[in-house]
Amino acid sequence: MAFEFSDGLNWAMAAPFAAALVAPFAKRMLGHNAAWLLALVPAAIFVHLCGFIEAVAAGNVVRSTPLAWLPQYNIQYSLFVDGLSLVFALLISGIGTCVILYSGGYLKGHPEQGRFLSFMFLFMGSMLGVVVADNLITLFFYWELTSITSFLLIGFNHRYEASRRAALQALVVTGGGGLALLAGLILMSQVGGSMELSQLLTSGDVLRDNPAYTAMLLLVLGGAFTKSAQFPFHFWLRNAMEAPTPVSAYLHSATMVKAGVYLLMRVHPVLGDTTLWMTILPIVGGVTLIMGTWMSLRQTDLKLTLAYTTVASLGLLVLLVGTSNQTAITGAVLYLFAHALFKGGLFMIVGTVDHEAGSRDVTQLGGLRKVMPITFYAAILCALSMSGIYPMIGFIAKEEIYAGIIGTDFQSVILTITVVVGNGMLLAAAFVVALKPFLGEEKAPKKAHEGPVLLIFGPVVLSLLGFLAMLFGSFTAHGLLSPMANAVTGQETHLAIGLGVVHFNLPLLLSLVTVVLGVGLFLKVETIRNTKGTFIRMMGEGPDRFFDTFISGLIRVSARFTRLVQGGNLEVYLAVTFTIVAATLLTPMILFDELPDWPSIPSMHFYEWAVLGLAVVGLFAILVARSRLTAIISLGIQGFSVALIFLLFGAPDLSFTQFMVETLSVVIIALVMSRLSLAERDGRPKLQMVGDATIAVLVGAGFGLLLMSVTQGAFDRHVSDFFTSYSRVIAHGRNIVNVIIVDFRGLDTLGEIAVVMIAGLSVLTLTRGTAKRFRSADGDGGETRGLPGASRGEKGTEQ
């Protein structure tokens, strides 16, 4: 594998994000005509990427110069283009050009068209990043960015509850899958020894032979299946139809929903061709294919019909990649290319019909062929490609698919039946969209007419490309799709595409069977639409309802858990906090047998024993104190004992500081409490006292044992030697402790002072507010508050 470097790749990636910043201003100045100007951005990216076709077709990989991101974690911003990423990037930028133009016409006059176009460019840049990312973390970054930008686009009409729900649903499902993917990518990098995809793809069986392979595969599949709407995660894609039609056209043809398929194709050389891979993917893909096509025939909304056919097509692609058969994967490559063209065109056509005829309900439309002839013929061409009928690119794709799955073993037979039935229903759905609104008696909610140039440009271009790809089959095969198939299979692939490439064989016979089946289903579509059944509802609507149940249940559980752990009782908060601290300190030492050796009792002078005794007396004084004032003063004894220890061990400056801090602390706490109450301490049940005492002992034991473990270890003098050597040289100070606090940790000390100051101000505000409430409750006798023995009842009697 030879590498070529192109810094233009980084600029091409930055262009959509720059356009996102400019789009609102362009819309404000140029109106809907801004679309013509803004469309130059994806068009320029498309032209730039076309410059890589020759190099990639020759077997080379184009890379950008890596940019350091988090070098200490081997994370860098790196991009690369091979056959797989090049075709995806060309589809994203090429169809993106058509969609930007289409958006200018579809949202003409919309007050927030500038915001919409900005979101579209963010979405475009995110998807481009996914398919050209080399570093795994770069890939994940863009992966999640597609989820966020799709959330903004799906929820564009945010005033409607259905739009907000659909956007949230897409974000939750795809975002959750993204977290699974992150774990899978990290595992891959650890096992493969690299964060770069271009290096992992040459690692052979390293990932497949590792014991963590199953975990890696399941985590990656979690990300791919949620993104590409595989059963049972398909429901979010159906509900995403709440987005404006330009979003649907882009989402379903070249962007987000194809990201999961891209990921499966990308990792196939290192994770595919195993029993687990060839079991999970065909089953999930097959179920998604049949469920999606059947549900598409039951819809009257043309957008929903197309949405379910996208679900089905994604299932077909997953099934084919899951076979790990070179011919079947080549068929998947062909079908993915064809699908991007005809599905983008069909969604734009449905949007144009809705825009110009006033509805996308197939039961309210008819006879539009006379008033919308260009749209009609574009729909026919797209439907022919979707149905796999000659002379469109979809024909070759279907032939290659059948050639790849035909076999005499049980699995091949089941797969063949599944794909034939699924393709038959796809054909029926394609002609429901392409024929039903245009033939028959003319009817529409409003007087229909052909759409303006901005609306028909995209459908016409994409529908013609489905034919031109066959007409210039040699370029399509050798310049685009063969390198793409090579990247997925890891083997040399030779494709034959052209108007004269028709083989009279079993795949052609299966194609004829598919056409007959599809025509029959098309004629019976009304019957299928009216069919009822629990199983049908469960497959189509069950996961959607489960999502609502799951979210509502999660909210209820969260509310109850919050009430449990945030009940408003400070004693409970402190008990839980210190229990966790004790468990954190003691559990590792006990589990890993790291308890320290019990030290021998040192020989101490009488005055050292006196200091220790003073600390113990202070401790018991706190425990037996009958008033808060006594407890506060006794608390200071502990600090004074520590200060004496500092003094005895030759640190008079620390000792002086400790004396001052303890004195001020006692005074300040006493003053604060005087604003509240210094009366007798609150009584506690004996059971609570035992529990609190247990927690206190455990925390104390935990810290004590931890300190003993630390002091029993070998002493590392590196830090001490550093401060000893440089305190005077750098900071010009002889007192090392002071130099550390003031110079080496100057900002840290400043931060600590700021924290103490903020805490003090908060306490002051709290005590003032509390004191005011007390005075309000007690009347004019508030001046007696804080005197020992002056209870609220006594004050009330005086008044």
UniProtKB/TrEMBL annotation:
Cell membrane among keywords: yes
Domain of life: Bacteria
GO biological process: monoatomic ion transport
Domain NADH:quinone oxidoreductase/Mrp antiporter transmembrane intervals: 133-416
The NADH-Ubiquinone oxidoreductase (complex I) chain 5 N-terminal domain, residue ranges: 72-116
Chain positions covered by the region annotation Disordered: 774-799
Transmembrane feature ranges: 12-30, 37-57, 77-102, 114-133, 139-156, 168-192, 212-237, 249-265, 277-297, 304-322, 328-353, 374-393, 413-433, 453-475, 495-523, 570-592, 604-624, 631-650, 656-678, 690-710, 749-767
Keywords, alphabetical: Antiport, Cell membrane, Ion transport, Membrane, Transmembrane, Transmembrane helix, Transport
Location(s) in or outside the cell: Cell membrane; Membrane
Any one annotated GO CC term: plasma membrane
Domain MrpA C-terminal/MbhD: 614-676
GO terms, molecular function: antiporter activity
Domain MrpA C-terminal/MbhE: 690-777
Membrane topology reported for the UniProt record: Multi-pass membrane protein
InterPro entries linked to this entry: CPA3_Na-H_Antiporter_A (IPR050616), MrpA_C/MbhD (IPR025383), MrpA_C/MbhE (IPR046806), ND/Mrp_TM (IPR001750), Proton_antipo_N (IPR001516)
Protein name in the entry: Na(+)/H(+) antiporter subunit A
Species lineage: Bacteria, Pseudomonadati, Pseudomonadota, Alphaproteobacteria, Hyphomicrobiales
